[in-house]
Amino acid sequence: MTDLAGDLARLRHLSGIKWNRYPDDVLPCWVADMDIRTAPVITEALEDLVRRGDFGYNFSAAAALPDAWVAWQTARHGWRPDVERVRVFSDVLQAVDLALWFGTRSGDGVVLLTPVYPPFFRCVESIGRVVVDCPLDPAGWRLGRDLLDEAIERAAAEGITTRAVLLCNPHNPTGRVFGPHELAAVAEVARERDLLVISDEIWGDIIFDGRRHIPFASISDDAAARTVTASAASKTFSVAGLRCAVAHLGVEKIESGIAGLPGHMLGAVSTPGAVASYTGWTQGGPWVEETVRFLASQRDHVRARITAELPRVRMNAPEATYLAWLDLRDLGLGDDPAAWLLEHARVALGSGPDFGVHGHGYARLNFATTRAVLDEALDRIVRALG
Questions:
Q1: In this predicted model, what pLDDT tens digit does every residue of 5-44 receive, in sequence order?
Q2: Which helix (H) or strand (E) holds 222?
Q3: 3-30+286-385: in CATH 3.30.420.40
């Protein structure tokens, strides 16, 4: 059995949406799940849980997560969150939704740095808030104070008062690791305009080329006091299906609002989710470092092949994430080149327009798979575009 056949045999037996949304003749490189097995220490911890039959009520597993996450943040990112302000959630978007619900009002504007993770649009619009579109500079996807101010002033001219910024830091889909000057500009605007900042930092551990993830709340005391920081082990350790996340609630009214909800309204994380997250944050460091090196090699492989074989496709090498944001506008494939490639190459990529109007002509490729699967996907794309 070839490497490709063996990889496909294993992956097509998985029950997640990545390998089950499309027919078997389609290679899925769309949703942000890794095809890499999680850290052995996590697998062993979960297997031990099963062997013990340890499925009763368990409050201690989730209760241990805030301290573990704070220690992880301190060691890896130089930020020591206040553990008393860390709360456990089922996923990052639950924390985002709650922060918007308690931190803004109907009709308020919420800045999104576009193109951006598609569920952010739903988070804002589903509760009657208004998206304030702040497009990143496509020449490197940079963020500057001028872009923020212009977006907020455009919204004001339409009668929209901006009350919040929803960050994706590091940024999905572009793979940018925002630098200190960029984040300081956001903090300055937030202070001057009294804005809530919600920072989704789920990608903060998958960073390349010696760059550093800077938690937004670490910028200043003022930034910390106006920021909700949401994170999870799911991207880092490939355990998204276990449904566990944390958030640091730096904003008093949001912390008190969530604390005041009826006790069971938010549900609770399962024991396997808590055990996997705790084990990753306390024992998974060496595995993360090895995995990031592999992902960097995958990124470099994609870039080399695109440069050599698809010169009309533009790609800024991502500084973080395992996602390549491909600019296919020169190929005449329409607003949604992923739809064309699905039909003609039988490869499923992330649809550019899902990331907002500034994603028209783009597609997102997930390279966190085996080299054999990645090469087969690239071969198909090259043939289809040839």
A1: 999 999 999 999 999 999 999 999 999 999 999 999 999 9
A2: helix 221-225
A3: no
